[in-house]
Each structure stands twice: as C-alpha cells, then as structure tokens.
C-alpha cells in the first residue's frame, strides 16, 4: 500500500478551527436574521435522484451539462447526484411532505453544495450556501421583502460596495415568443455564432445572451429584447417590486442581460454583486420560480427565493478587516498533586453544571507551565488547586486580567467566578 500523504479533493476545503469559529458566528447571525423574518429551517439530503436536477435546473444549463457530481448507486443502479443547489430539493421536499397547499411557507436551509467547476478564488467544487425560499406567494411584496432582507443583512455586517442588479424574465408566454424571435435572429446570423452558441441555438438560445465571447458582443447587443415581449401583468409586477425597493431606499440597477444560470426562473431575478472579489463577485442571487413546483410534479405554486455563497461573504467580511472571533473559555483549572487533581475534575464539572465554559488542564506539568497555558487559553479566570487547597476543600481563584488572587470554598466558587467575568 502506498503511504503517500493524502490530500483533500481539489476544490473542496477543510475549514480549520480558527476559521470555523468565524463560520459559527456567521451562521448564528444569519439564522437570527432569518428568524426575524419568520423563516423556518428545513434540511434535505445531500444526495437526490439525478432526474430532480435535470428537470428543475434544466437540461441545457452549465450545471446539468457539465458540473454535476452524478453517479450510479453501486448497489441498486439508481442515478444519484450530489446536490449542486438547494431550491430543487426544497421544492421536492415541500411537495413530498404536503407542506405546500394549506399555507404558504417561508423556508431556509444551509450546507454544502457541489459543482464540478474550475476551482479558483471564490469558486469551489464544494461550497456552502444559505438558501431562502418562499413557497406559495404570488405577489411582488414577497419579492421585495426578500431583497430588503438581504439589504438588512449587508447593513448588519457593515458590508460596503455590494450592488443590486435586477431584471424581469416575464412569464412563459413572453419567453416563448422571445425565444422564437431569438432563434430566428441567430439563425440569420449563423456564421457569427461560436461553437457554444451554435450548440445552444435551439436548446437554450437565451443563454447565448450570456456569452462572454467578445466577438459576439455586437450580435448579442442587437438581439431581440425580452423587454419588448413582456405581458402587462409581468411588467406591473416588476414595477411594483421596484417601487417598494425605492420606498425603502434600496438602490438597484436594471440589468436586461441578467438571465441567471438556472432555467426555473420567471419574472423577478436579482444578483447582489461586489467588485471586490474579482470575477467571483456575486455573493447572493435568486428570483421568482413560479413553474418549478409543477416541474417537479406538484400543482402550480408561485414561489421566490435566493441563496448566498458563504465562502464569498466571509471573504468579503475578512477583506473588510473583520477580526476572527474566538470561542472563549471562562475558566482554566490548574492543579497539581493527587488530591488536587481529583478535586479539579470535580470542580470543573461543577462549573459546567453552572453553565460556565471550562478547560481542565490535562497532562501535568509545573504550576508555572500550566499558568502559561491558562494565559494562552484566553480564560478570564484561573482556578488554582494544590494539595493544600484540596485538603481544605477550597480553591484559589485568579483573575487573568489582573487583580487579587482569592481563596474560596468550593461551594462559593461559581459565585466568585461569575463576579469576575
Ligand atoms: P446560484 O446563483 O447558482 O443560485 O448560486 C447562489 C450563490 O451561491 C452564488 O451567488 C454564489 O455566491 C454561490 N456560489 C455558486 N456557485 C459557487 C461556487 N462554485 N463556489 C462558491 N460559491 C458559489 C442558486 O443556487 C439558486 N438555488 C438560488 C435560488 C434560491 N434561487 C431561488 N431560490
């Protein structure tokens, strides 16, 4: 057997303890924010039938065509996929468990997503999202609320330089008309299409508008515009979303080229973008997907949602100079001698009963070396126990930020510690 050192899979990251504390803090903040808008947590499996994503995200999307981790279950031949996103699973779960038809649902989930993309800063093969889905809501008020929610979160984090891009994709009838016009337009200019565009011409002409190929920009710019096909209802919906944002002073830019990389969207789509993360500047994105529930087998159910990229948001927060938070312990227990050690572990348990965070020194060593560890631990208080103290069923309490060391009975320990911290 080779004993070459094994490494994590490319594009999949370990999150080490210092950084993990930042993640814990972030997740708590986000959960608190979500609960303040009445969203409730839902947890779906990481693995789903491949058919779910093919149907929901669309056959001719980058995700489904080339980024999914799909495999055959070796035991029964099922076609399975590591989830590349959460909206499809969330709709599937809500439908499967009958959450949809009695009352609308505000749901959120978080966790890893998997896409076989080219790894680079801000783009990983395993990355994390917080996803937010409102199922059963048709009006523009929820679209606006979700955007306002995001704006609140950016304020809470003190994020500067995030801009909102907004577009409407209309409804299926207008999209069909637009699609037909696009196909005939691009067919007339077939000689100017690159290989990608040629391949997409009949399957997903809308995606040609997303082309980054400089040679095609002129062609794309002059293509038939969806905006010219939109129905009154969709336009009114979009106007109302904009009006609500304006009333709340949320600035936005209408970007008619914003089409998103997943096929389930209609009407409002949006992306929050920063210029500070290079090419991977989208920290949060989403929109309305009124057709998705039907697409996965349910009755028509209007819905809207978004997801944010946790790695990208944390990178932004760190760039803004956020200090890494540190999980703190309240008490470090130092002890030497047989009797003292026994009392030390009893005292540590007692303090934990009283909800304090306690590091009990393990591994022996002199008082001096133990005190150094107490100092490095960041604990506010050191509890020092020698056999002398132990015999009297007492301990010494030393405030680590300076102040008198006092000797107290074990019984009075918690009160003394609480006074110091
Ligand atoms: P998405 O735009 O594919 O949408 O992803 C949402 C966010 O996830 C992106 O804006 C980005 O911050 C982050 N993200 C995506 N791919 C990567 C990656 N490879 N590495 C790091 N971060 C990444 C969705 O996933 C939809 N499900 C959003 C949604 C929810 N729409 C409606 N409801």
Layout of strands and helices, then pairs:
Blueprint: H1 17-35, E1 40-41, E2 47-49, H2 50-57, H3 62-67, E3 69-72, E4 79-82, H4 87-96, E5 105-114, E6 126-135, H5 140-157, E7 162-168, H6 172-188, H7 195-200, H8 217-221, H9 232-247, E8 253-254, E9 266-274, E10 282-288, H10 292-295, E11 303-309, H11 310-319, E12 331-335, H12 338-353, E13 358-360, H13 367-377, E14 381-385, H14 387-391, E15 394-399, E16 406-409, H15 413-420
Parallel strand pairs: 1-5, 7-8, 12-13, 12-14
Antiparallel strand pairs: 2-4, 3-4, 5-6, 6-11, 7-9, 9-10, 10-11, 14-15, 15-16
Bound molecules: histidyl-adenosine monophosphate.
The site of histidyl-adenosine monophosphate (HAM) has 28 residues, from strand 6, strand 10, strand 11 and helix 11.
Describe the overall structure.
The chain has 421 residues and is α+β, with helices and mostly antiparallel strands. It folds into 2 domains: 17-171 and 231-319, 2-Layer Sandwich (BirA Bifunctional Protein, domain 2); 331-420, Anticodon-binding domain (Rossmann fold, 3-Layer(aba) Sandwich). The chain has helices spanning 17-35, 50-57, 62-67, 87-96, 140-157, 172-188, 195-200, 217-221, 232-247, 292-295, 310-319, 338-353, 367-377, 387-391, 413-420; strands at residues 40-41, 47-49, 69-72, 79-82, 105-114, 126-135, 162-168, 253-254, 266-274, 282-288, 303-309, 331-335, 358-360, 381-385, 394-399, 406-409. The protein is elongated. The mean pLDDT is 94. Bound molecules: histidyl-adenosine monophosphate. The site of histidyl-adenosine monophosphate has 28 residues, from β6, β10, β11 and α11.
